[in-house]
Amino acid sequence: MSEGAGRKAVEVPVHDALIVGAGFAGLYQLHALRDRLGLSAHVLEAADGVGGTWWWNRYPGARCDSESHAYAFYFSEELLQSWEWSERYPEQPEILRYLNHVADRLDLRRDITFNARVTSARWDAEDNLWHVTTADGRRRAATWLITAVGCLSSANIPDIPGRDDFAGRWVHTGHWPHEGVDFAGQRVGMIGTGSTGIQAAPVIAGSAAHLTVFQRTANYSIPARNTPLTSAFKRWAKENAAEIREAMHATGNGHPWPVSERSALEVDDAEREAIFRAAWEKGGLRLRATFRDILTDRRANDTAAEFIRARIREVVKDPKTAAMLTDIDHPFATKRPPIDTGYFETFNRDNVTLVDVRADPIERITPTGIRLKSGAEHVLDIIVFATGFDAMTGALLRMGITGRDGLALSDAWAAGPRTQLGLQVAGFPNMFTVTGPGSPSVLTNMPVAIEQHVEWITDCIAAMRARGVATIEPTEEACDRWVAHVNDVANATLMPQAGHSWYLGANVPGKPRVFMPYAGGMPAYRRICDEVAAAGYEGFVTTGARTRVTA
Predict the structure, then answer these.
(1) Which of 80, 185, 261, 551 is the most exposed place for a label (fewest CB within 10 A)?
(2) Cα–Cα distance for residue pair 446/440, rounded to 1 Å
(3) In this structure, are residues 43 and 26 in contact, taking their beta carbons and an 8 Å threshold?
(4) What b/e readout covers 287-324, taking b as 16+ CB neighbours within 10 angstroms?
């Protein structure tokens, strides 16, 4: 295929599929399409290596909150057995090594172009192709466009007045310098106390002259109790891989342990306390699985919330600081529930100060630091923005995607993302979104959600090719029904009560407030996806050479 009018024609490579992103999702999608279906598939990756989120996120303390034996691909027994984790919760460098291992083992690099940030993706109805342009001006085309850009990959850098006048250095945790940042002897200000800030604060405090944490929203956190894996555990995980996979597929959030069937309100105070304490000492996300109704009954949730507040007050020595850290305004686990290594203990250090910017907001960044509304100024050498991401939609909207009849994705989603199953968007033929808005995605152990999506997309493409179908996309009505269902499911939980959650897009000024992930759990979601496929892709419209059929 060539392009050019009035100039020398430029040959444009044409593929069966173009995949954007070389993290967990993009690597598996390439393998599935190329090695299982025999298609011409190619990955475009903005970074200069594989890893996706784990290539970019190199901030101090960056670590997975899924247990390592579950945070891996399970589609290949050979691949699973060829890797060994070292810790209960793997750190960023180890996860990056794992993804490089996957890329090497499956020989994926030969079909990946690095340093290729997508700046435009345009659907051409005349030739039924997506035309994709990268930042360096290079073009490619493909029948299928698959976005595997990750849910947490578009950094949310707050536009605080005076930011660019700061004479020191500022960094965002999502775009951390690869050479690292030397905090020794530095006065550091960190804005943000979500999961990233909770991981970073203890490490920064360990070397900085002083760390000032600017907290807008107090947060729950559970100790990780991270530890090196024993040889006995490593052996058990490999010998029981099938059972672990089955357990992950059976649970709503994709972790390898079930949610208890008991209610927090069915047991007396002493028994409930003992159950919570056992989970607290075990560490990690299991605490939210101790009772079935923690996310559906406010009274049950209050028991967990108060338990955690009590633990914070036990740890933090200064009563004023403890009061700020426990002034939590949302139910437990309605925002992403962080796990930590010494976060609350950090505030017992002499070189750490907590500032409540809800009570005294940040007015501006000055050349020498941060000034609050009260006039108080904190002199700083380095500012760390631990302010998270424009989650789930940000990376997609920054790609310049244009569908049929010139419809921009940003316009299609002006009132919030609308998808069918979180997999496709009406008006954007042959475009799939791996773990897109409207799917379980960030509410799950991500590799489980990614494997399910990649396999559904691969099966769908295989089915369309077998039927001689040129395009597939959802109907507007199907998207309307799915968005309504996603909202109904969310409203059956307590999650929408965290009005400032990034699940709702509330961390990004001007972003529509819509609950984006599917809260119905992986088993229910998997069943719905399978039923849609079994019914001939119900809710989707397909076109052949001469036909247009609504399935």
Answers:
(1) 261
(2) 9
(3) yes
(4) bbbbbbbbbebeebbebbbebbbebbeebbeeeebbeb
Token reading at 235: 């052996």
Measure the CA–CA gap between 125 and 134, rounded to whole angstroms: 21
Q: Using alpha carbons, select from 194, 165, 540 the residue that is nearest to residue 388.
A: 194
Answer whether 224's CB lies under 8 Å from 89's CB: yes
Q: Which of 19, 199, 192 is nearest to 92 (CA)?
A: 199
Structure tokens at 491: 């409203």
Collapsing DSSP to helix, strand or coil, 142 comes out as strand
Distance in Å from the first CA to the final CA of the chain: 32
Beta bridge partners of 353: 212
As a dihedral over the C-alpha atoms of residue 81, residue 23, residue 21, residue 191, rounded to 10 degrees, the angle is: 180
Q: For 27-41, how does the pLDDT look when each residue is reduced to its tens digit (9 = 90+)?
A: 999 999 999 999 999
Question: What Cα–Cα distance (Å) separates residue 419 from each residue in 382, 393, 413?
Answer: 41, 12, 9
Q: Kindly state the tokens that stand for 2.
A: 């060539």
pLDDT < 50 regions, the chain? 4-8, 153, 502, 505-508, 511, 545-551
Reading phi first (left if > 0) and then psi (alpha if -120 to 50, else beta), residue 539 is in left
- H helix or E strand, kind and range, residue 189: strand 187-191
pTM of the model: 0.93
For the chain, give the longest Cα–Cα distance: 82
- Asked if 183 and 207 touch (Cβ cutoff 8 Å), the reply is yes
pLDDT tens across 49-85, in order?
A: 999 989 988 999 999 999 999 999 999 999 999 999 9
Separation of alpha carbons 207 and 186, rounded Å: 8
Q: Are strands 112-113 and 41-44 parallel, antiparallel or unpaired?
A: parallel
Q: How many residues does the chain have?
A: 551
Which residue, 505, 420, 490, 489, is CA-closest to 457?
420
Rg (CA), the chain: 24
